[in-house]
Task: inverse folding
């Protein structure tokens, strides 16, 4: 809340601060926009600090007034769309961290550093006690509220469950931190989806013109309806006047001459009435003609375009799939048609009151009513659509479903009528058409199979039915076995559709409604996701007929423009940036060779997903999918900002780099790693000015899981002839300084940010040496050897066209790098360019007993590390000395801040093996940094 400037409230601030400090809680000071008042608040804090000497400044959290009203992470989760809110709901299905606790304690939970607490037992114990106090406080609040008995009971149980972490508060902190991290992932995914949605392709001039024409036609139609409403009232008044005079004429007794004059007047009135009736019927016919043109524009053009855009958006296209315009148009034209229906009913009433010979209403009304009903039926049937296609929260993308795994789907009626809110029941079924295909599998739908169309489940009040918990289950065939497909189609080439039905009954019109999803691929194992997604990509790229479930029987080939566009959408979805023309051309050359134009080049379904690429053991799609996963998981930022050139041939790579200054490098994807790999190459010049291009072995997801690519680029080193480590990477192609391009992504941690501050620290180093004695080193960020587990890099693929030197089995992550003699030989590629080696496989860290340590005085070590001394030479002499252990006493060492310690666990390799490599690592650290 915003504190006003009053002595009473300032005293309240002070009292609360003192109370918090006495209870060991943190103090929150909210800085007002009023500078003078903020100064008073800070003065109160200083008084508190003087009274409570143990108060640490970091325990006082300063927040601006705006922060007080900022939406919490939990509130943001609750406002997400169905797919992402369902993921958040599924996250809290278990009992590890109850959703109710997360909900009621959201501000406090999000205000704590649970990551730090998971590593700091004292901080974890403190937060554990505060959590129990907050549960007690919330329990007391529930006790004072009506209808909160169940919540009160639940919170008592939650506190009892949390008390099992009394001895392990760090475990609880780690659990809470895990949930918060997962929440952020859901929010990030939702934000990415929203960003992709906002990257909508601008409508063309033709599209804008068609929309303007529809708006204009609808406006004219509504105006005509308003005019006709006035006309029908005039017609009724005219008829009433004629009827009154006619009845008066019949009852009056008058002379023959007067009677003749009255009859002439009545005849004129009847002729005028007849003319008005015919004119009114003609106007209805004209309106129906205009409405039919609008119907065709809406159903045959706009709705078809929307369905095609929805198809493409399912495979990553940044197309606009919102339904607001269509809903407004359908609602307006249907309302106009219901008004015409009322006009025809009014004509029935007028005919019932008075008719005459050759009356046009009985002759024309039936035909006009039939036209109105036909238009209404067609419009209402077309207005029932699938707004959100079937989607699994943990799936690869829409339209890929897995048996026994929940998915969600949403249908919508584009005619927005509040009177039918919660009235129309929608039922769901599957395989109405697919079940007729011999050999296709059959499924049952489980879950909530009936829901009412309502306005509560839509952000903008549309008529929707949101099915969130549907599941497909295999239907047994014959003697219990599954259907055998006689069409030679694989499981991932079988297409199925989910169908929704409801009944529309309104204003005397009864219309059965039915709509179906786009074809879905149903899998039974997560290993089928990759090929299933390939089928979805291919179908929605090439086929606009959703009823063609036998598409893969005779699947057509894709032209390069369509195929390249589809691939570009995949990168836009994964990395927020599509492929540029150069990247597309590189891929086209890879597939079709050098051509003048690729517009007529075609690629078949078999070549895309079934046949291996030349000289590899994987298909084109498997290769592309591996790269896409690499971008999505580890390279999305670098890809989106254009730092990765990505697809470039080796020949073009060398051609580009040899024209640039020394140290210019580029990033490209490997062409021969199945699961995706990225490498970098740089140019360097010899003394005679001859350029050469060097390339590292590609980094895979296993490597990038351990070290981020920007950190690899930052710490990369080559050992020159004098054993001086030099980073050869200076400029990202074409001429951007490396730190300018990647500096914002470096994650080198310092001081308190490092969670393993108290452990010995080292850097992951990769060493090689060429024939000329030039070593190269690749470094990673500092890491804790005592606690951090690392996955071993995958064995090198013998078919790798970027094959590099392999590392030693001894990991350089240990205190000493043991370099194999074979490792000292160089490997040159066809251009005589040196290749930097692959990473060494890390081995388990060696930890020495705490009682076996070597002590050296600080002055001796400082002298040894003097700038005037050749460290490598001195260190090598020391390691090669046969009397290395003479005069050194091993004993239990007490911590002294003025001494340095070398852990003898890192000493064993030096004593047991002889190394010929001049580069060795030694780990020096103060004893205060050791646990």
Result:
């Amino acid at each position: 809340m915003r504190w006003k400037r009053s002595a009473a409230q300032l005293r309240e601030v002070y009292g609360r601060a003192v109370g918090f400090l006495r209870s060991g809680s943190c103090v929150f000071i909210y800085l007002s926009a009023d500078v003078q008042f903020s100064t008073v608040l800070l003065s109160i804090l200083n008084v508190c600090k003087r009274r409570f000497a143990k108060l640490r400044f970091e325990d006082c959290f300063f927040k601006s007034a705006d922060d007080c009203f900022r939406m919490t992470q939990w509130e943001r989760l609750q406002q997400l769309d169905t797919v992402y809110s369902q993921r958040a709901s599924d996250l809290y299905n278990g009992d590890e961290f109850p959703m109710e606790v997360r909900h009621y304690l959201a501000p406090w939970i999000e205000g704590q550093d649970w990551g730090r607490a998971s590593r700091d037992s004292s901080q974890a114990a403190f937060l554990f006690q505060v959590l129990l106090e907050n549960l007690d406080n919330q329990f007391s609040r529930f006790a004072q509220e009506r209808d909160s008995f169940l919540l009160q009971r639940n919170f008592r149980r939650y506190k009892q469950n949390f008390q099992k972490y009394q001895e392990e508060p760090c475990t609880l902190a780690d659990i809470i931190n895990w949930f918060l991290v997962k929440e952020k992932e859901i929010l990030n995914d939702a934000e990415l989806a929203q960003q992709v949605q906002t990257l909508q392709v601008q409508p063309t001039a033709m599209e804008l013109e068609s929309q303007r024409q529809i708006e204009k036609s609808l406006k004219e139609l509504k105006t005509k309806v308003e005019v006709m409403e006035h006309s029908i009232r005039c017609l009724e008044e005219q008829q009433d006047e004629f009827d009154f005079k006619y009845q008066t004429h019949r009852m009056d007794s008058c002379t023959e001459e007067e009677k003749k004059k009255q009859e002439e007047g009545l005849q004129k009135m009847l002729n005028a009435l007849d003319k008005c009736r015919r004119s009114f019927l003609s106007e209805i016919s004209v309106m129906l003609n205009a409405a039919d043109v609008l119907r065709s524009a809406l159903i045959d053009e706009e709705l078809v375009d929307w369905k095609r855009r929805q198809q493409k958006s399912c495979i990553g296209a940044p197309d606009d799939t919102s339904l607001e315009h269509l809903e407004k148009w359908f609602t307006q034209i249907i309302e106009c048609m219901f008004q015409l229906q009322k006009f025809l009913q009014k004509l029935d009433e007028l005919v019932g009151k008075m008719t005459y010979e050759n009356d046009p209403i009985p002759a024309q009304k039936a035909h006009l009513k039939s036209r109105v009903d036909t238009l209404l039926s067609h419009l209402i049937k077309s207005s029932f659509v699938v707004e959100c296609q079937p989607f699994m929260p943990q799936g690869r993308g829409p339209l890929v479903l897995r048996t026994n795994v929940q998915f969600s789907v949403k249908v919508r009626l584009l005619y927005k009528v509040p009177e039918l809110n919660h009235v129309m029941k929608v039922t769901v079924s599957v395989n109405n058409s697919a079940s007729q295909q011999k050999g296709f599998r059959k499924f049952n739908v489980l879950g909530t199979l009936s829901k009412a169309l309502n306005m509560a489940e839509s952000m903008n009040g549309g008529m929707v039915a949101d099915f969130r918990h549907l599941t497909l289950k295999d239907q047994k065939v014959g003697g219990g076995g599954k259907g055998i497909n006689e069409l030679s189609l694989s499981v991932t080439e079988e297409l199925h559709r989910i169908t929704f039905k409801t009944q529309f009954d309104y204003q005397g019109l009864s219309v059965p409604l039915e709509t179906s999803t786009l074809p879905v691929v149903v899998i039974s194992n997560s290993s089928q996701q990759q090929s299933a997604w390939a089928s979805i990509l291919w179908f929605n790229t090439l086929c606009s007929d959703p009823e063609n479930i036998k598409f893969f029987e005779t699947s057509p080939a894709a032209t390069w423009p369509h195929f390249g566009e589809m691939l570009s959408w995949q990168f836009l979805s994964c990395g927020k940036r599509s492929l540029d023309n150069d990247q597309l051309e590189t891929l086209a050359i890879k597939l079709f060779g050098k051509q003048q134009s690729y517009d007529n080049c075609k690629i078949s379904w078999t070549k895309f997903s079934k046949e291996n690429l030349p000289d590899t053991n994987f298909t084109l799609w498997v290769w592309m999918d591996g790269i896409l996963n690499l971008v999505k998981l580890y390279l999305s930022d670098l890809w989106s900002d254009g730092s990765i050139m990505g697809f470039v041939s080796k020949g073009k790579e060398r051609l580009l780099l040899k024209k640039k200054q020394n140290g210019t490098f580029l990033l490209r994807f490997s062409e021969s790693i199945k699961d995706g790999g990225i490498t970098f190459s740089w140019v360097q010049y010899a003394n005679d000015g001859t350029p050469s291009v060097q390339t590292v072995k590609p980094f895979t997801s296993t490597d990038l899981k351990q070290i981020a690519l920007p950190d690899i680029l930052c710490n990369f080193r080559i050992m020159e002839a004098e054993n001086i480590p030099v980073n050869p990477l200076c400029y990202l192609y074409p001429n951007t300084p490396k730190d300018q391009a990647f500096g914002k992504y470096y994650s080198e941690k310092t001081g308190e940010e490092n969670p393993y501050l108290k452990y010995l620290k080292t850097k992951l180093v990769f060493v090689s040496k060429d024939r000329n004695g030039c070593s190269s080193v690749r470094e990673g960020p500092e890491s804790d050897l005592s606690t951090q587990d690392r996955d071993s890099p995958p064995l090198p693929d013998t078919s790798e066209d970027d094959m590099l030197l392999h590392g030693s089995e001894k990991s350089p992550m240990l205190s000493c790098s043991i370099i194999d003699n074979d490792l000292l030989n160089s490997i040159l590629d066809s251009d005589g360019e040196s290749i930097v080696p692959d990473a060494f496989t890390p081995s388990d860290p060696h930890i020495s007993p705490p009682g076996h340590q070597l002590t050296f005085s600080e002055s001796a070590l400082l002298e040894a590390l003097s700038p005037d001394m050749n460290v490598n030479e001195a260190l090598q002499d020391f390691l090669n000395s046969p009397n290395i252990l003479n005069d050194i006493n091993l004993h239990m060492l007490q911590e002294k801040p003025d001494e340095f310690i070398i852990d003898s666990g890192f000493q064993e390799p030096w004593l047991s093996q002889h190394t010929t490599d001049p580069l060795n690592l030694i780990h020096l650290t103060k004893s205060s940094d050791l646990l």
The longest strand covers residues 463-474. Residues 466 and 673 are 42 Å apart (CA to CA).
